Fold:
Amino acid sequence: MKNSVNIGLIGLGTIGGGVAKILHEKADSITKQVGTPLTLRSVADLDETRKASLPDPSIFTTNVQNIFDDPDIDIVIELIGGETPAKTFIQEAIQRGKHVVTANKEVLAKHGPELLSLADKHKVGLFYEASVGGGIPLIAPLKRNLQVNDISSIHTIINGTTNYILTRMEKEGLEFSAALKEAQDLGYAEADPTRDIEGFDAAYKIAILATIAFHTDIRPEDVFHEGISRMTSQDFQYARELGYAIKLLAITKKEGPFIQVRVHPVFIPDDMLLAKVDGVFNAVQIEGDLTGRVIFYGRGAGSEPTANVIVSDVIHIARSINTGTEMQPELYLDTPKQIIPISEIETRYYMRMTIADMAGVLAQITRVLGENQISISSAIQKEADIKSQTAEIVIMTHPAQEKAMQQALDQMESLEAVKEISNLVRVED
Amino acid sequence: MKNSVNIGLIGLGTIGGGVAKILHEKADSITKQVGTPLTLRSVADLDETRKASLPDPSIFTTNVQNIFDDPDIDIVIELIGGETPAKTFIQEAIQRGKHVVTANKEVLAKHGPELLSLADKHKVGLFYEASVGGGIPLIAPLKRNLQVNDISSIHTIINGTTNYILTRMEKEGLEFSAALKEAQDLGYAEADPTRDIEGFDAAYKIAILATIAFHTDIRPEDVFHEGISRMTSQDFQYARELGYAIKLLAITKKEGPFIQVRVHPVFIPDDMLLAKVDGVFNAVQIEGDLTGRVIFYGRGAGSEPTANVIVSDVIHIARSINTGTEMQPELYLDTPKQIIPISEIETRYYMRMTIADMAGVLAQITRVLGENQISISSAIQKEADIKSQTAEIVIMTHPAQEKAMQQALDQMESLEAVKEISNLVRVED
Structure:
């Protein structure tokens, strides 16, 4: 039993500020849950102007070493984000015998297994609930409640920025650039939105989830990812007509020893619950042999939801410290990694193209698809544009292998009658 | 570090059989997670014919005392259901120093706080994830991840039987009795369906959730409950017309020191995610000051989903036993109980009635409502039935207090022009 469990916080941005606020405002309730007070003892940030936001600015420092050197600090919260120097800070804290709580998806996705075994070696905890799904309890339930399950797949809307943009395109008929601009104005998207838009952020998160779900060491470079910038208002119109929604999904599946892990826009049937997840909300759908389908839904970002799960991780550790309990290893990786490359994956496809408005073109396209063992499940041809003498057609296919589809695309592009292949989107049923 | 953690199982019904099967079939994976094997050492059931289903029938006994008397049994799983003798069995196990895992919602709702403090006193764990929401991880996330949050409300579809019936009424236009019959034929409803249909089952579950969420001792007798048997196909038609779905919700809310906890059918807007939860699925929507809205969705019943969370609880305890960790108290109740009676609760209402088809009736009804401070937000009057000279009207009200509404109903029933008040359903927005 200690008089107090002491915390060092690195990074006093939006989320760090939220954590400091919760520790201050909810001190009574936290003390009751831990059995002893949690004391925020030191806060490090390079930007000295931020110290004013602290209830007690005297604990502020611009020198992060003060946190590592303080033998009374039990738990370090790392919230600076990005790979460098966050990874070094996490390592340093662990090596100094401090428990670590972090929201850092990039470090966890790239270096999680090494850091977790380092923590295990030093008998400290490394918790990262906040790194995936913001305010949604996800990693703890996966480890604690779904572990007996053999998980077969995870489908998740895990990036709030892109889901906001796609929702605005769907509901308001906006084009991508207008929806992105709106998201930037509202602070949902960054000035350089590449990490979100191109699926890097979602790739980090699905790598973390797949690693836990399949007990396999999955890294960001194993994740195929493709962004949403090619989506247009036409695609949303066709999707609606065909009974689908368009979402950026991060998907991982295990079939026998083979794992697929990918991030890209998909058509999903509009009666799936995931199709109803709008705006900045996130949702994670997990299929297991015992539980069947389980879905977790909530705010995937934002200062308060994220700060809440960080403090929950801190409380979990603090209770163990207070009762003298040793941390138990939280991750075991015993399944060999056999990733299926995207070229080998089979899905259905939605394809939109502009063709010359003349007889026999559809037959040419059908022939190319057929030669590549791709069969059509439905097709829509809209009224021709008389001025340009072109027509737009949309084709939905039966399941086909990605490499066959790519080859068919190459061949179709070389047909004179095909003016443009405007979009190709995978379908998940 | 022990050679094995030993389990005694009481009750070899569907779920008990599922637990025995998982412990057998997933032994390797479980051993890896616990760090030592879990051994099913003894199984007690009064029905001897059930022993044949066990991989090793020699561990079967009809005498439950054998389990309590066995000093090598570390964890007792209670799966006989019902209050008596299950409560005594749980007590006995705890007093003998054994950890307990149970799916028993009735015992937990009625006697949870006493049993949890008994477990605390004997330094053993009492886990009951399976008592609420079947295969959905719910209690652990509430305790572990949402605890810093001040929870303001829980809205939940927590009874699969009634949700199945309501879904069939909505999608197929069935009447209640036909949908119930179908549910019984499929094994989703019992021969005597009262516990499900009248909301007793949901009342137990919401009492358990409210106790955890609000740190207040809520018992089944604190829960107002009303069943679904008055719903008709007309109500579903009007609901659709008005943009609502009809669900049996268990609801608990905290406003200042006041807690409301109730189970009854409600109209909910059809664009809410809960409105899309169909069939035997369950969902729990939790609102907190930090997390905002979080939803958990999955199978609320069934042998495998339920057995999965039971084994997860067992693994959680076994890991602690294996590392020599003491169990930490899992529940603290420090908030005084101030339940708002249903008569004081304010909601909007849907009301359907048959009136005489003559001038001035709507005016009479409006006057009665007005005298009780109830204002109308919309009304539908359908074509009159010429033969009986009656018409059906549906009224949606603005928020009004339950007791004012009940008084208005009494007064309306005494109006000569009101032939029948067919249904009154609360609305949650």
